[in-house]
């Protein structure tokens, strides 16, 4: 029945697209095989070849991290891939492996805390943010990040202390990579602290 075949084809195509969004290329390739049977004139084999190449490339990225989990580049590539595919459980496992190798390396700790932010694990991110303020106490950026994380955790008083420190250091800094005044004034996350007398005063006296 031609109508039934069209209906089945549409269902299979929708399933194929969903599998591709998830990065499940081997399963998507199986769908193209089914589509080729009911639609021999289609270009399904071309998509199958593409999916096989993508599956190989992604497996290379993940295998590279598994073989060398302390390599920062391998970690970031794996996290980007897994995040793009919404594979949260695998992200958590990858972050955990990398965390065991980070030590006190500021660069690795920065990658690590950003990854905790991606999965919304604010408690673990707070621990890393605090560690970075100890490693580099005169840098405003770790304090600013710590303030944001504490606001995510609804720790307003502790966030106020961190943000006050960030703004004080920001005034003295000669290498301001970001404009934290603008971020505080425009990001709704900072709304609970924006009108605090200490913050208002520090915002008036910019660097």
Q: How would you describe the overall organization of this protein?
A:
It is a single chain. By secondary structure, the chain is mainly α. 78% of the residues lie in helices and 0% in strands. It contains twelve helices and no strands. It is elongated, with a radius of gyration of 24 Å. The model has no long low-confidence stretch (mean pLDDT 93).
Instruction: Give the tally of β-strands.
Output: 0
What's the SSE pattern? HHHHHHHHHHHH
Give the distance, in angstroms, between the N- and C-terminal Cα atoms: 74 Å
Question: Proportion of β residues?
Answer: under 5%
The computed structural class is mainly alpha
Biggest sheet record: none
Rounded to an integer in angstroms, the radius of gyration calculated over CA atoms is 24 Å
Shape category: elongated
The averaged pLDDT comes out at 93
Descriptive terms for the model:
207 residues, mainly alpha, 12 helices
Strand-helix topology:
Layout: H1 2-21, H2 25-38, H3 44-67, H4 72-84, H5 88-102, H6 106-118, H7 122-135, H8 140-152, H9 156-172, H10 180-186, H11 191-194, H12 197-204
Helix pairs in contact: 1-2, 2-3, 3-4, 4-5, 4-6, 5-6, 6-7, 7-8, 8-9, 9-12
């Amino acid at each position: 029945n031609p109508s039934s075949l069209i209906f089945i084809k549409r269902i299979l195509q929708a399933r194929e697209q969903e599998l591709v969004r998830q990065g499940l290329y081997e399963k998507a390739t199986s769908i193209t095989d089914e589509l080729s049977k009911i639609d021999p004139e289609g270009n399904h084999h071309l998509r199958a070849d593409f999916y096989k190449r993508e599956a190989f490339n992604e497996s290379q990225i993940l295998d590279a991290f598994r073989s060398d989990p302390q390599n920062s580049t391998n970690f970031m590539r794996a996290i980007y891939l897994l995040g793009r595919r919404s594979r949260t459980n695998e992200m958590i496992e990858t972050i955990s492996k990398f965390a065991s190798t980070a030590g006190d390396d500021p660069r690795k700790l920065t990658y690590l805390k950003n990854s905790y932010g991606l999965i919304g694990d604010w408690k673990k991110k707070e621990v890393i943010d605090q560690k970075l303020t100890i490693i580099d106490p005169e840098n405003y950026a770790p304090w600013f990040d710590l303030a944001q994380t504490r606001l995510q955790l609804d720790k307003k008083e502790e966030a106020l202390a961190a943000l006050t420190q960030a703004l004080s250091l920001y005034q003295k800094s000669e290498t301001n990579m970001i404009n934290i005044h603008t971020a505080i004034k425009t990001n709704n996350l900072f709304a609970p602290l924006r009108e605090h007398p200490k913050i208002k005063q520090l915002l008036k006296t910019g660097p």
